[in-house]
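Cross-check.
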Amino acid sequence: MEVKVLLSQDLIPKFYRNYALSLVKEAIKLGNKAVYIRLYETEKVVEKKPFNFEIFFKGTPTGDFYLVDKKPILKFSTTNGEILSAFIKGVLVLSKRGYEFYISEHLKDKVKPKLLGMEKKIISNTLFIPNFLLPESAKDFKEKTKGMRLEEKVKFYFESQGFKVLEILRLKQKRPVKHKFRDIILMVNPIELEIKVSAESKDKLLDAVYNGIGWFSSQGFGYIKPVLRAVKV
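Predicted model, tokenized:
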């Protein structure tokens, strides 16, 4: 299922994906502490989590934060019922008590998230991914894709994940962005991608649509929007 959450705030931190991840983790922790412990204290830190999220907003960058023009919307999706239940319960708790966070090193704020709705995602083999990351720093990927063009790297990655690439409909390299991972600031290169694939199984496609795909897919990248295209007559 996909859950939509409204974040009524006027300021948002520069590393807004990290902020959104901290809110997601707090919601899961409040909703079911055992699930949180399993995800973040038992499993390896680098292991992909069975959920995905993306935060959407319009704002003006000002120093260490953004002045928000349009209230942020957090979209969270998963195929794991336990994680879904924990997240929803946690959001409901935070909607009453609020979630306190740092906008910058010396500036705090509080947001009360509001649950807007929940629905199934469309399952389609045409996928639109606004912020897709290739695992550029992974040694094995670097070695096997050395000398390849960007399109070839994308095809290689999807095939390594159990997908046959039928057509790349859109491929646009976006501006590099900074992402904080375990107190290390990385410069990553998001790609706007629309791709038509054939999955080796229905479960494989379902997993990608709900749980994301690509590098840092449970940290705010690789969120999939399935596309239904009109039939040409």
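The two ends are 33 Å apart (CA to CA). The longest strand covers residues 65-77. Passed to J.P. for a second look.
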